[in-house]
Amino acid sequence: MYASRSPNNKRYTSFDDVLARFPQPARDGMPDGVIHLGFEDREPCDIAVESGVARVVPSGENEARASVRCSSGTFLELVSYRADFRTLVQDGRLAVEGDLSFALGIYSLLLKTNSEAIEYFRTVDTMPRGEPLREVPRVRRPTRGQVLDVLARNTPLIAAGMMEDWRALQWTPERVASEYGDTTVVLERQVSISMRELVARMCDVSPNTDRPPYVNGCQLPDAMFPDVQPSPWFSPRDFLPPQLWMGAAARENPSTWLHRDGGPVFLGQVFGRKRVVLFCPDQTPYMYSASVSLNTELIDPDHFDRARYPLLARAVRTECIIEPGDILVLPLGWYHCVWALSPNISVAHVFANNATWSG
Protein backbone atom coordinates (compact mmCIF):
# COMPACT_ATOMS: atom_id res chain seq x y z
CA MET A 1 0.00 0.00 0.00
CA TYR A 2 1.34 3.40 -0.99
CA ALA A 3 -0.29 6.67 -0.06
CA SER A 4 0.84 10.21 -0.68
CA ARG A 5 -0.56 13.66 -0.13
CA SER A 6 0.01 16.89 -1.99
CA PRO A 7 0.76 19.94 0.15
CA ASN A 8 -2.23 20.64 2.38
CA ASN A 9 -2.29 24.40 2.58
CA LYS A 10 -4.67 25.89 5.11
CA ARG A 11 -6.86 28.82 4.22
CA TYR A 12 -6.42 32.29 5.51
CA THR A 13 -9.30 32.87 7.91
CA SER A 14 -9.65 36.60 7.18
CA PHE A 15 -8.23 39.41 5.12
CA ASP A 16 -6.48 40.67 8.26
CA ASP A 17 -4.46 37.42 8.20
CA VAL A 18 -3.18 38.40 4.76
CA LEU A 19 -2.19 41.90 5.83
CA ALA A 20 -0.45 40.48 8.92
CA ARG A 21 2.23 39.02 6.64
CA PHE A 22 3.61 42.52 6.03
CA PRO A 23 6.11 44.01 6.14
CA GLN A 24 8.24 41.23 4.67
CA PRO A 25 11.26 40.96 2.36
CA ALA A 26 10.46 41.08 -1.35
CA ARG A 27 11.85 38.49 -3.71
CA ASP A 28 15.39 39.01 -5.04
CA GLY A 29 15.41 41.34 -8.02
CA MET A 30 11.81 42.48 -7.56
CA PRO A 31 11.45 46.11 -8.72
CA ASP A 32 9.99 48.90 -6.66
CA GLY A 33 6.33 49.63 -7.26
CA VAL A 34 2.78 49.53 -5.93
CA ILE A 35 -0.05 47.10 -6.58
CA HIS A 36 -3.61 48.24 -6.05
CA LEU A 37 -6.03 45.60 -4.76
CA GLY A 38 -9.59 46.64 -5.51
CA PHE A 39 -12.42 44.63 -4.01
CA GLU A 40 -16.12 44.47 -4.79
CA ASP A 41 -17.11 44.04 -1.15
CA ARG A 42 -14.52 45.81 1.02
CA GLU A 43 -12.18 48.80 1.08
CA PRO A 44 -9.23 48.69 -1.35
CA CYS A 45 -5.69 48.02 -0.27
CA ASP A 46 -2.26 48.88 -1.71
CA ILE A 47 0.97 46.95 -1.27
CA ALA A 48 4.26 48.69 -2.06
CA VAL A 49 7.72 47.28 -2.71
CA GLU A 50 10.56 49.66 -1.91
CA SER A 51 14.25 48.84 -1.47
CA GLY A 52 13.60 45.12 -1.17
CA VAL A 53 10.78 45.35 1.41
CA ALA A 54 7.05 44.86 0.76
CA ARG A 55 4.57 46.64 3.04
CA VAL A 56 0.95 47.80 3.16
CA VAL A 57 0.52 51.49 2.33
CA PRO A 58 -2.52 53.84 2.22
CA SER A 59 -4.60 53.18 -0.86
CA GLY A 60 -4.54 55.63 -3.76
CA GLU A 61 -1.57 57.73 -2.65
CA ASN A 62 0.85 56.28 -5.21
CA GLU A 63 0.60 55.45 -8.89
CA ALA A 64 0.01 51.71 -9.27
CA ARG A 65 2.40 49.55 -11.27
CA ALA A 66 -0.33 46.89 -11.40
CA SER A 67 -3.90 46.54 -10.21
CA VAL A 68 -6.13 43.59 -9.35
CA ARG A 69 -9.91 43.54 -8.96
CA CYS A 70 -12.02 40.72 -7.52
CA SER A 71 -14.15 39.87 -4.50
CA SER A 72 -12.42 39.44 -1.15
CA GLY A 73 -13.59 35.82 -1.06
CA THR A 74 -12.00 35.10 -4.45
CA PHE A 75 -8.79 36.76 -3.28
CA LEU A 76 -8.61 34.61 -0.16
CA GLU A 77 -9.21 31.48 -2.23
CA LEU A 78 -6.43 32.52 -4.59
CA VAL A 79 -3.75 33.14 -1.97
CA SER A 80 -4.72 29.97 -0.06
CA TYR A 81 -3.97 27.73 -3.09
CA ARG A 82 -7.71 26.99 -3.46
CA ALA A 83 -8.09 28.56 -6.90
CA ASP A 84 -5.88 28.87 -9.95
CA PHE A 85 -4.83 32.36 -11.06
CA ARG A 86 -5.32 31.63 -14.77
CA THR A 87 -8.72 30.00 -14.27
CA LEU A 88 -10.04 32.97 -12.30
CA VAL A 89 -8.98 35.34 -15.09
CA GLN A 90 -10.53 33.06 -17.70
CA ASP A 91 -13.81 32.90 -15.75
CA GLY A 92 -13.95 36.66 -15.32
CA ARG A 93 -13.71 36.48 -11.52
CA LEU A 94 -10.31 38.22 -11.43
CA ALA A 95 -9.08 41.17 -13.50
CA VAL A 96 -5.40 42.17 -13.73
CA GLU A 97 -4.09 45.34 -15.35
CA GLY A 98 -0.60 46.76 -15.70
CA ASP A 99 2.64 44.89 -15.02
CA LEU A 100 1.65 41.21 -14.81
CA SER A 101 5.13 40.08 -13.70
CA PHE A 102 4.99 42.50 -10.76
CA ALA A 103 1.48 41.29 -9.87
CA LEU A 104 2.70 37.69 -9.88
CA GLY A 105 5.61 38.66 -7.65
CA ILE A 106 3.22 40.09 -5.06
CA TYR A 107 1.04 36.99 -5.45
CA SER A 108 4.03 34.77 -4.58
CA LEU A 109 4.57 36.78 -1.37
CA LEU A 110 0.95 36.24 -0.34
CA LEU A 111 0.69 32.50 -0.96
CA LYS A 112 -0.19 30.62 2.21
CA THR A 113 2.34 27.82 2.54
CA ASN A 114 2.07 26.06 5.89
CA SER A 115 4.62 23.92 7.73
CA GLU A 116 3.20 20.67 6.30
CA ALA A 117 3.79 21.85 2.73
CA ILE A 118 7.29 23.07 3.53
CA GLU A 119 8.13 19.75 5.19
CA TYR A 120 6.78 17.77 2.24
CA PHE A 121 8.99 19.60 -0.23
CA ARG A 122 11.93 19.34 2.12
CA THR A 123 11.36 15.56 2.16
CA VAL A 124 11.46 15.16 -1.63
CA ASP A 125 14.36 17.60 -1.92
CA THR A 126 16.50 15.54 0.46
CA MET A 127 15.32 11.96 -0.09
CA PRO A 128 18.20 9.49 -0.73
CA ARG A 129 18.84 8.84 -4.42
CA GLY A 130 21.25 6.76 -6.46
CA GLU A 131 22.98 7.90 -9.62
CA PRO A 132 21.45 10.92 -11.37
CA LEU A 133 18.75 10.07 -13.87
CA ARG A 134 20.38 10.34 -17.31
CA GLU A 135 17.34 9.40 -19.38
CA VAL A 136 13.62 9.44 -18.67
CA PRO A 137 12.37 5.86 -19.10
CA ARG A 138 9.73 5.31 -21.78
CA VAL A 139 7.22 2.52 -21.07
CA ARG A 140 4.49 1.36 -23.43
CA ARG A 141 1.10 1.37 -21.64
CA PRO A 142 2.41 1.15 -18.05
CA THR A 143 0.16 -0.37 -15.43
CA ARG A 144 -1.23 1.46 -12.43
CA GLY A 145 1.32 -0.34 -10.28
CA GLN A 146 4.20 0.91 -12.44
CA VAL A 147 2.96 4.49 -12.19
CA LEU A 148 2.52 4.19 -8.43
CA ASP A 149 6.08 2.91 -8.26
CA VAL A 150 7.60 5.91 -10.06
CA LEU A 151 5.57 8.29 -7.88
CA ALA A 152 6.81 6.46 -4.77
CA ARG A 153 10.41 6.62 -5.97
CA ASN A 154 9.91 10.20 -7.16
CA THR A 155 11.23 9.56 -10.66
CA PRO A 156 9.62 10.68 -13.95
CA LEU A 157 8.27 8.41 -16.66
CA ILE A 158 7.06 8.75 -20.25
CA ALA A 159 3.93 6.65 -20.64
CA ALA A 160 3.43 5.84 -24.32
CA GLY A 161 0.19 4.62 -25.87
CA MET A 162 -2.10 5.75 -23.03
CA MET A 163 -3.99 8.36 -25.08
CA GLU A 164 -5.22 6.15 -27.90
CA ASP A 165 -8.87 6.63 -26.87
CA TRP A 166 -8.54 10.46 -26.71
CA ARG A 167 -10.49 12.12 -29.51
CA ALA A 168 -8.11 15.01 -28.86
CA LEU A 169 -5.37 13.09 -30.68
CA GLN A 170 -7.23 14.05 -33.86
CA TRP A 171 -6.75 17.74 -33.05
CA THR A 172 -4.70 19.92 -35.34
CA PRO A 173 -4.64 23.70 -34.99
CA GLU A 174 -6.86 23.97 -38.06
CA ARG A 175 -9.35 21.41 -36.75
CA VAL A 176 -9.49 23.10 -33.36
CA ALA A 177 -10.17 26.44 -35.06
CA SER A 178 -12.94 24.83 -37.13
CA GLU A 179 -14.68 23.00 -34.27
CA TYR A 180 -14.01 25.39 -31.36
CA GLY A 181 -13.34 28.70 -33.15
CA ASP A 182 -15.60 30.81 -30.89
CA THR A 183 -14.22 29.29 -27.69
CA THR A 184 -12.23 31.78 -25.61
CA VAL A 185 -8.84 30.98 -24.10
CA VAL A 186 -6.32 33.10 -22.18
CA LEU A 187 -2.78 33.81 -23.36
CA GLU A 188 0.18 34.01 -21.00
CA ARG A 189 -0.21 37.80 -20.55
CA GLN A 190 -3.82 37.22 -19.40
CA VAL A 191 -5.21 38.37 -22.76
CA SER A 192 -8.45 36.69 -23.82
CA ILE A 193 -8.58 35.49 -27.42
CA SER A 194 -10.81 33.24 -29.52
CA MET A 195 -9.44 29.90 -30.62
CA ARG A 196 -9.95 30.96 -34.23
CA GLU A 197 -7.80 34.08 -33.75
CA LEU A 198 -5.15 32.12 -31.84
CA VAL A 199 -4.72 29.62 -34.66
CA ALA A 200 -4.58 32.41 -37.22
CA ARG A 201 -1.81 34.09 -35.25
CA MET A 202 0.02 30.78 -34.82
CA CYS A 203 0.03 30.32 -38.60
CA ASP A 204 1.34 33.87 -39.10
CA VAL A 205 4.32 33.61 -36.73
CA SER A 206 7.74 34.52 -38.10
CA PRO A 207 10.51 31.92 -37.52
CA ASN A 208 12.46 34.62 -35.66
CA THR A 209 9.71 35.43 -33.14
CA ASP A 210 10.94 35.16 -29.55
CA ARG A 211 7.51 35.07 -27.81
CA PRO A 212 4.78 33.84 -30.16
CA PRO A 213 1.16 33.61 -28.95
CA TYR A 214 0.89 30.84 -26.38
CA VAL A 215 -1.89 29.51 -24.16
CA ASN A 216 0.12 28.91 -21.02
CA GLY A 217 -1.93 26.48 -18.96
CA CYS A 218 -5.38 28.06 -18.86
CA GLN A 219 -8.26 25.79 -17.88
CA LEU A 220 -9.38 23.57 -20.76
CA PRO A 221 -12.60 25.13 -22.12
CA ASP A 222 -15.74 23.17 -21.28
CA ALA A 223 -16.53 22.58 -24.96
CA MET A 224 -13.28 20.64 -25.35
CA PHE A 225 -13.69 18.42 -22.27
CA PRO A 226 -15.36 15.50 -24.10
CA ASP A 227 -12.29 15.06 -26.31
CA VAL A 228 -9.99 14.47 -23.32
CA GLN A 229 -9.87 11.50 -20.98
CA PRO A 230 -8.71 11.76 -17.36
CA SER A 231 -5.69 9.85 -16.17
CA PRO A 232 -6.28 6.13 -16.74
CA TRP A 233 -4.66 5.30 -13.41
CA PHE A 234 -6.57 7.53 -10.96
CA SER A 235 -9.98 9.03 -10.29
CA PRO A 236 -10.91 12.29 -12.05
CA ARG A 237 -11.76 13.64 -8.58
CA ASP A 238 -8.05 13.57 -7.72
CA PHE A 239 -7.21 16.28 -10.25
CA LEU A 240 -7.62 19.99 -10.74
CA PRO A 241 -9.46 20.92 -13.96
CA PRO A 242 -7.25 20.02 -16.95
CA GLN A 243 -5.00 22.73 -18.36
CA LEU A 244 -4.56 23.62 -22.04
CA TRP A 245 -1.11 24.48 -23.43
CA MET A 246 -1.19 25.54 -27.08
CA GLY A 247 0.81 27.73 -29.39
CA ALA A 248 3.60 28.15 -31.88
CA ALA A 249 7.27 27.40 -31.39
CA ALA A 250 9.55 30.25 -30.31
CA ARG A 251 12.89 30.86 -31.99
CA GLU A 252 14.88 30.10 -28.83
CA ASN A 253 12.92 30.96 -25.70
CA PRO A 254 11.11 28.31 -23.67
CA SER A 255 7.36 28.01 -23.89
CA THR A 256 7.36 27.57 -20.11
CA TRP A 257 10.19 28.93 -17.95
CA LEU A 258 11.94 26.86 -15.29
CA HIS A 259 9.58 26.09 -12.39
CA ARG A 260 8.00 23.29 -10.38
CA ASP A 261 4.38 22.62 -9.52
CA GLY A 262 2.46 22.05 -6.29
CA GLY A 263 1.46 18.48 -7.20
CA PRO A 264 2.37 15.61 -9.53
CA VAL A 265 1.76 16.48 -13.18
CA PHE A 266 0.54 14.26 -16.03
CA LEU A 267 1.37 16.13 -19.26
CA GLY A 268 -0.38 14.64 -22.28
CA GLN A 269 1.06 15.60 -25.67
CA VAL A 270 -1.70 15.94 -28.26
CA PHE A 271 -0.12 17.61 -31.30
CA GLY A 272 3.48 18.49 -32.17
CA ARG A 273 6.62 17.79 -30.14
CA LYS A 274 8.09 19.28 -27.00
CA ARG A 275 11.53 19.23 -25.42
CA VAL A 276 11.55 19.08 -21.62
CA VAL A 277 14.57 19.77 -19.42
CA LEU A 278 14.18 18.31 -15.92
CA PHE A 279 16.01 18.83 -12.64
CA CYS A 280 15.58 16.42 -9.74
CA PRO A 281 14.36 17.92 -6.44
CA ASP A 282 17.80 17.25 -4.93
CA GLN A 283 19.08 20.02 -7.21
CA THR A 284 17.06 22.61 -5.26
CA PRO A 285 20.19 24.30 -3.79
CA TYR A 286 21.05 25.38 -7.35
CA MET A 287 17.58 26.40 -8.50
CA TYR A 288 17.05 29.88 -6.98
CA SER A 289 13.53 28.83 -6.03
CA ALA A 290 11.72 30.77 -3.31
CA SER A 291 8.27 29.25 -3.73
CA VAL A 292 6.54 25.88 -3.79
CA SER A 293 4.84 26.34 -7.13
CA LEU A 294 5.51 29.77 -8.56
CA ASN A 295 8.80 31.09 -9.93
CA THR A 296 8.68 34.73 -11.03
CA GLU A 297 12.33 34.58 -12.09
CA LEU A 298 12.26 33.86 -15.86
CA ILE A 299 15.11 31.38 -16.07
CA ASP A 300 16.07 29.55 -19.26
CA PRO A 301 18.52 26.79 -18.28
CA ASP A 302 20.00 26.84 -21.80
CA HIS A 303 20.74 30.58 -21.76
CA PHE A 304 21.03 32.22 -18.36
CA ASP A 305 23.04 34.95 -16.70
CA ARG A 306 25.89 33.03 -15.08
CA ALA A 307 26.89 36.03 -13.00
CA ARG A 308 23.37 36.26 -11.53
CA TYR A 309 22.74 32.50 -11.26
CA PRO A 310 26.21 30.94 -10.81
CA LEU A 311 24.96 27.85 -8.97
CA LEU A 312 22.62 26.82 -11.78
CA ALA A 313 25.62 25.82 -13.88
CA ARG A 314 26.33 23.05 -11.35
CA ALA A 315 22.86 21.50 -11.52
CA VAL A 316 22.49 18.06 -13.12
CA ARG A 317 19.78 17.96 -15.78
CA THR A 318 17.81 15.29 -17.62
CA GLU A 319 16.19 15.85 -21.02
CA CYS A 320 13.44 14.17 -22.97
CA ILE A 321 11.26 14.67 -26.05
CA ILE A 322 7.53 14.01 -25.84
CA GLU A 323 5.44 13.29 -28.94
CA PRO A 324 1.72 12.89 -29.66
CA GLY A 325 0.27 10.13 -27.51
CA ASP A 326 2.88 10.44 -24.76
CA ILE A 327 2.05 11.28 -21.15
CA LEU A 328 4.96 12.67 -19.15
CA VAL A 329 4.46 11.61 -15.53
CA LEU A 330 6.23 14.22 -13.42
CA PRO A 331 6.35 13.53 -9.66
CA LEU A 332 6.14 16.27 -7.07
CA GLY A 333 9.13 18.56 -6.77
CA TRP A 334 10.75 18.10 -10.20
CA TYR A 335 11.78 21.36 -11.82
CA HIS A 336 11.06 21.57 -15.52
CA CYS A 337 11.43 23.92 -18.45
CA VAL A 338 9.58 23.25 -21.72
CA TRP A 339 10.23 24.19 -25.36
CA ALA A 340 7.69 23.82 -28.16
CA LEU A 341 9.63 22.36 -31.09
CA SER A 342 6.77 22.98 -33.49
CA PRO A 343 3.18 24.25 -33.32
CA ASN A 344 1.78 22.16 -30.52
CA ILE A 345 -1.12 21.30 -28.22
CA SER A 346 -0.83 19.67 -24.78
CA VAL A 347 -3.27 18.92 -21.97
CA ALA A 348 -2.03 18.64 -18.38
CA HIS A 349 -3.70 17.04 -15.37
CA VAL A 350 -2.31 18.15 -11.99
CA PHE A 351 -3.12 16.45 -8.69
CA ALA A 352 -5.27 18.65 -6.49
CA ASN A 353 -4.34 19.56 -2.93
CA ASN A 354 -5.34 16.74 -0.57
CA ALA A 355 -5.42 14.22 -3.44
CA THR A 356 -4.52 10.72 -2.29
CA TRP A 357 -3.88 7.52 -4.12
CA SER A 358 -3.19 3.95 -3.05
CA GLY A 359 -2.33 0.63 -4.62
Structural domains: how many? 2
Approximate strand percentage: 25-35%
Helix content: 10-25%
- Second-tier CATH architecture of the largest domain: Sandwich
CATH superfamily annotation of the largest domain? Cupin
- Flag low-confidence runs: 1-10, 290-294
What's the shape?
Answer: globular
Number of helix segments? 8
Main attributes of the structure:
single chain, 359 residues, alpha+beta, Nonspecific Lipid-transfer Protein, Chain A, Jelly Rolls, 2 domains, seven-stranded mixed beta sheet, six-stranded mixed beta sheet, 8 helices, 26% strand, globular, disordered N terminus
Question: What can you tell me about this protein's structure?
Answer:
With 359 residues, this protein is α+β, with helices and mostly antiparallel strands. Helices cover 19% and strands 26% of the residues. The protein has eight helices and 19 strands. The chain has helices at 15-19, 72-79, 85-90, 100-110, 115-126, 144-153, 173-180, 195-203, and strands spanning 24-25, 33-39, 45-50, 53-57, 66-70, 95-98, 138-140, 157-160, 184-186, 192-194, 214-219, 243-247, 256-259, 265-271, 274-279, 317-322, 326-330, 335-340, 344-350. The chain has a seven-stranded mixed sheet. Strands 1-4-3-2-5-6 form a six-stranded mixed sheet. It is globular, with a radius of gyration of 20 Å. The termini are close together. The relative contact order is 0.17. The model is unreliable at 1-10 and 290-294 (pLDDT under 50).
